[in-house]
Amino acid sequence: MSHLQPVPSGTPVPDQAPVADLGALLRQSARGDQQAFAALYDATSARLHGLVLRVIRDPAQAEEVTQEVFLQVWRTAARFDEAKGSPLAWLMTLAHRRAVDRVRAAEAVSRQDTSYHQNNHVVDHDSTAEAAEKSMEARRVRAALAELTPVQREALELAYFGGYTHAEVAVMLDLPVGTAKTRIRDGLIRMRDAIGVGQ
Amino acid sequence: MTAHEIHALSGAYAVDALDDLERARFEDHLAACAECRAEVASLQDAAASFSSMTTAAPSADLRAKILADIKTVRPLPPVVARLDSRRPRRWANLVAAAAVLTVLGGGVTVWQQNHSTSQAPISAVDQIRTAADVTAVTQDLGKGAKATLYRSASLGKAALVTSHLPAAPNGKTYQLWLQNRAGHMVNAGLLDGSGNRAVVLQGDASDATAAGITVEPAGGSQTPSLPVVAVIEFEKAT
Ligand SMILES: [Zn+2]
């Protein structure tokens, strides 16, 4: 994760508490260490729940999903492989997948509503995140987002925070069929390269 | 979908923007494409950074609930080499999806079986394989492993021949089963070892509707443990 990367010289130190060694906490949790899991929860729950809440929007349902995700983390901590990605990416990937699956399942039930969220084009970053972290990382992410083309940014936000498929995003943004996935990928690659993660 | 197009789904996959069908197809591709695996990992890492903008602490109740929950849940063991990395499926689904083999008429039991079929002489297997009325069906077990099930109605016996069968996990053994007409799985003996094995299934196979392979604790079990490794159905084949 970016906040585990070496900070470029001349950049201020992140204004947050020292980052816990999430990988070590996950390994201890896999061995049944409940205290390590509690520490992992404390280090990541605001971030994980904030994402789930952002995607799902309904606070009660979001807490249910957050609970499911943490139980999944407890059960499957031994399956985490640091060689394949950072601990935080693993947690957020689990949380995002579950949140998206939840909104899609709910949507499948009420398919009749064809108005299709046309008014949600513009994603407001702070709408569900009163406690939005003003951390160095958040600032860097915002700065990186600002570098994307408007279409890349909107496609990425609709996919990630909206939980929409690339085909739905294409319709919402009036893009030719099959191009939203390219915008999403291009945008993510630019984000990755700008914030220096995954290297 | 061309190979080029499927690589292009990496970004949409990393942010869960594929529908179920595309997701399944892309995950198949991922298993075979190291380039996409590396790209997806780096893009998931980038996507995870978005969550720095949306932090929101859950209620204190939730923390207490989760920490109480985990007391009753056992963490899973790490992944060790498995025959089939697909999600465990119910026995019935496997039967439905399994390959099929002709059901044959009644037969007679010609061998006295000891508990472990691995002790069956190879000539007994060959006797089934070379019977005039033998039928055979081969099932892919994944990762290069294959199993062929032979049955001779006149002999009333079935034999299983494997290739590239991975060793059962430490302290475990393969066990074979025959499903009777009432749907019960009846022990058909153990299958020890790995690689290329040839064993006669214990019991009368003339009336069985399917044969199954499971991984069981050393010494075998009274009833099959899920997930099963493979189910090969006898009926309906040509
Ligand atoms: Zn690929």
TrEMBL record, chain A:
One of its GO terms (molecular function) is sigma factor activity. It comes from Nocardioides marmorisolisilvae. This is Sigma-70 family RNA polymerase sigma factor. Keywords: Sigma factor, Transcription, Transcription regulation. GO terms for biological process: DNA-templated transcription initiation. Residues 139-190 form the RNA polymerase sigma factor 70 region 4 type domain. Residues 40-106 form the RNA polymerase sigma-70 region domain. Gene3D superfamilies: 1.10.1740.10, Winged helix-like DNA-binding domain superfamily/Winged helix DNA-binding domain (1.10.10.10).
UniProtKB/TrEMBL annotation, chain B:
Residues 5-37 form the Putative zinc-finger domain. Keywords: Cell membrane, Membrane, Transcription, Transcription regulation, Transmembrane, Transmembrane helix. GO terms for cellular component: plasma membrane. The keyword Transcription applies. InterPro entries: Anti-sigma-K/W_factor, Anti_sigma_zinc_sf, RskA_C, Znf_put. The chain crosses the membrane at residues 91-111. One of its GO terms (molecular function) is sigma factor antagonist activity. The keyword Glycoprotein does not apply. It comes from the Bacteria. It is a single-pass membrane protein. One of its GO terms (biological process) is regulation of translation. It is found in: Cell membrane; Membrane. Residues 95-227 form the Anti-sigma K factor RskA C-terminal domain. This is Regulator of SigK.
